[in-house]
Specification:
Blueprint (H helix, E strand, L loop, with lengths): L4 E13 L9 E2 L7 H12 L5 H11 L3 E8 L2 E9 L22 E19 L1 H12 L28 E4 L2 H7 L15 E7 L13 E9 L4 E13 L6
Parallel strand pairs: 2-5
Antiparallel strand pairs: 1-5, 1-6, 3-5, 3-7, 4-5, 7-9, 8-9
Helix pairs in contact: 1-3
Length: 247
């Protein structure tokens, strides 16, 4: 995305986050940074969009016009939760599942992965009216926002990303916005900064890819939350020095 773009900044920080991409059945994974489906889903919930055709149309209108960049302020640690769900559980035929040996209710054992103590700067680039509606919804949400799963509430205000910054700013590109945002969000906790920050930038037109920045394909663009349909997008990674604080 080149030329003049408007960018909404979000701060996603909490004790636990989980941004699944292949979460099916007994294994619920997480990416090491927020997914586009997770961020759009958070905005959809805050906006009060339902799991119906109208909600899907509103989601589609948003994802078609908005690109996303992420800067990993604090990567956190991946942790695994050994999780059990107590029956009674039903089969596809509507019968109660029971163990063959004892006849007791069958339990489901699952592994659920989280990012512990992570912090991300997210930049959303798109039409200013779309960004303003998303910002206003996140400030006064219909349903509370969560970081990938309902069990993962944020521990800091999502907007503004930093009190010294306007929530929506103008840049020449999404990459300039994400890499140039100041300050590093870990500074307000008195932490030692890392050597570099990892950035994941969406590239709407893969023909604009550079040879030194190979593209990665991500299947996380929501087409329907009601029917769990997604399409892919392309992103690239870059690393930057830790920016200074706003004076």
């Amino acid at each position: 995305m080149s030329g003049q773009v408007d960018v909404l900044f979000l701060r996603l920080e909490g004790p636990l986050q989980s941004w699944g991409v292949r979460s099916r059945w007994s294994v619920r994974d997480t990416r090491t940074e927020p997914t586009k489906s997770g961020v759009i889903g958070m905005i959809a919930a805050a906006s009060g969009w339902g799991l119906d055709q109208e909600g899907d149309e509103q989601v589609a209108a948003l994802v078609q016009q908005v690109s996303m960049g992420v800067r990993v302020e604090r990567p956190g640690q991946v942790i695994r939760d050994y999780h059990t769900v107590l029956g009674p559980l039903l089969t596809a035929q509507g019968k109660v599942k029971r163990t063959q040996s004892t006849g007791e209710f069958e339990n489901i054992v699952s592994e659920r992965y989280y990012l512990a103590d992570a912090c991300f700067l997210v930049g959303l680039a798109g039409p200013v009216e779309k960004l303003e509606r998303a910002r206003d919804a996140l400030r006064d949400p219909t349903w509370p926002p969560f970081l990938g799963r309902r069990s993962c509430p944020p521990s800091a205000p999502i907007t503004p990303a930093h009190p010294a910054q306007d929530t929506i700013q103008h840049f020449t590109s999404l990459e300039e916005a994400v890499t140039g945002f100041e300050p590093w969000l870990g500074a307000d906790r008195g932490e030692q900064p890392p050597e570099k920050l990892r950035c994941v930038i969406e590239l709407p037109d893969p023909r604009q890819a550079r040879r030194d920045r190979p593209l990665q394909r991500r299947q996380d663009v929501p087409l329907s939350f009601a029917h769990r349909r997604f399409r892919h997008r392309y992103v690239y990674e870059t690393y930057i020095q830790v920016p200074g604080e706003v004076s």
